[in-house]
Design goal:
Layout: H1 2-19, E1 23-26, H2 29-34, E2 36-42, E3 50-51, E4 56-57, E5 64-69, E6 72-73, E7 76-78, E8 94-96, E9 107-125, E10 131-136, E11 141-145, E12 153-169, E13 176-186, H3 199-217
Antiparallel strand pairs: 1-12, 2-13, 3-7, 4-5, 5-6, 5-9, 7-8, 8-13, 9-12, 9-13, 10-11, 10-12
């Protein structure tokens, strides 16, 4: 019985570790919207245009957008089209940093406050058709190709854990552009907000009941 209990606990632990932190990405806005509830959309407006003081935009609490260029705070919100977007109309005003510094850590961070389980952004680059690196606070990293023509590339995710920031980088080779930001809760409308017990939860409960039953069965009866 002891071996059975250890085996069940081991299987449960392995499955729990495997399930934790699962992330699904989306390149289509409809697909993302179908699996996300309570979506809030941030569109940069005329009042945001120009260099951002201190390199961090705090207008849209709890979301902040910050940039780093050559290791120093740097962020601007630019009109689209404009020379800063290579005169391309990406369909949304864009946040950007300087480009070509050669510092791989340069980029834009979308800080999601306490964290959300679903978010999406529009991504472009000054030179179209570049590969942008997107990294989440969970450590998950993705390569996203920017579009050769409008609209800007849509990229989103859902996760079973809260993500607190999204980093977007051109690897020090070019300036990434980030447009419309959306965030919400992973879970399709009508599913109870993800409150249905997961298979992992049911397995853990079942394992515990089996162990308890086995231990009760093999407890020696004390002599009267």
């Amino acid at each position: 019985m002891k071996r059975l209990a250890i085996s069940l606990c081991g299987v449960a632990f392995f499955l729990a570790a495997s399930a934790h932190g699962a992330t699904v990405t989306y390149s289509d806005t409809t697909a993302f919207s179908n699996v996300t509830t309570g979506i809030t959309t941030i569109d940069f407006g005329p009042g945001d245009l120009g260099p951002v003081a201190g390199g961090i935009l705090t207008t849209y609490s709890p979301i902040t957008v910050s940039g780093t260029y050559c290791g120093s705070p740097n962020l601007s919100v630019v009109a689209s089209p404009s020379p800063e977007t290579h005169d391309i109309d990406w369909g949304t005003e864009m946040a950007r940093i300087g480009g070509g510094c050669g510092n791989a850590s340069d980029g834009i961070r979308i800080n999601l406050g306490a964290g959300f389980t679903a978010a999406a952004i529009r991504i472009a680059s000054f030179w179209e058709g570049q590969t942008v690196v997107v990294k989440l606070s969970t450590g998950d990293t993705y390569s996203v190709s920017t579009a050769n023509a409008p609209p800007a590339t849509f990229w989103g995710f859902t996760s079973d854990v809260a993500v607190t920031y999204i980093d977007v980088s051109g690897g020090g080779n070019f300036a990434p552009l980030v447009g419309q930001i959306q965030y919400g809760v992973a879970g399709a409308a009508g599913d109870g907000g993800g409150e249905t017990p997961e298979a992992m939860t049911l397995l853990l409960i079942g394992s515990g009941l089996l162990i308890f039953r086995g231990m009760k069965r093999f407890v020696p009866v004390s002599a009267a």
